[in-house]
Amino acid sequence: MEQDPAHFQALALSGGGFRGLYTAQLLADLEQHLGEPAATRFDLIAGTSIGGILALALACEIPAARIVSLFQDHGAEIFRRRSLFAYFKSKYASTPLQSLLADSSLFGERQLGECRHPVLVPAINYTTGKPVVFKTAHHRNFQTDKHFRLVDVALATSAAPTYFPRHVFNNCQYVDGGLFANAPGLLALHEAEFFFGRSPDRVHLLSVGTMSTKATVDPRKNRNGGMTSWGGINPVDTPGQLFGLTLSAQESLVHFMLTHRLGERYIQLDDDLTDARARAVALDKATPAATEVLIGTAHERAKWAIGNDRLRALLDRRSNTPTFF
């Protein structure tokens, strides 16, 4: 059967810190089922923060299982606290993550233009105060980003405020793209429509989350809106609480909008954290308990996905041959 070139499939990977282990393991299970890179099934991969790191890896056809190993072997190193109160510097240094990404077994010195599949990764250029989306040269107008190192793009999209320092390259300071596009599915749909020239009714999108916690208020606490109202006894926790609320609200909004726009052509793979599991899992908890929850749940979700007719139909179709300019 001849492949329809107007058919377009996109993969969107959410941010979520160490919770990205869930995403990585789920993708690794899908790749094991396929027997080849997951990127061969998608015409575009979009990813934010840890999802951006995963997106870049997939676009280079680096196995998702390698990212799983990175989490398991080096998660505690990445999230080794260097500042107790984070008044004057971020909780964690970016040096361990940068060293791991720059290893020859991962990104090394590769540039965005060396990706084998189209990819987009959002961040915020704090120097200009504007959002930016790093892209491969899959459109004739995209001729600059392809010269950027993958390591720089990865660190820019994952520089979560107060968790990691701002990443500086190209004479600009960048912060986490999760502040405006933690769930990048709408960016992927926009890219398909306006830069790939595909009709929205021909776009199919798979979104993979990070077991994001729905941030809600504790009704027993004060509702005055001050620092202790948000951060509790330690007001330094306030930025983290606000960041978490931003991420969870975005996830819900994007999910509803993509459901309305694409209907059954939109599939989301994610799991809710129960109260008990939520105490073990967080953006920056790289513990054996968190690892057990994330990997175990990912295995179960992958098992469900492989048996799902709609997702199996999506994975049975190979992507169009990409064109780069």
Automatic annotation (TrEMBL):
SUPFAM superfamilies: FabD/lysophospholipase-like (SSF52151). The keyword Hydrolase applies. The active site is at residues 49, 176. Keywords: Hydrolase, Lipid degradation, Lipid metabolism. Pfam families: Patatin (PF01734). GO terms for biological process: lipid catabolic process. The keyword Amino-acid biosynthesis does not apply. Transmembrane segments: none annotated. Residues 11-189 form the PNPLA domain. GO terms for molecular function: hydrolase activity. A motif (GXGXXG) lies at residues 15-20. This is PNPLA domain-containing protein. It comes from Arenimonas malthae CC-JY-1.
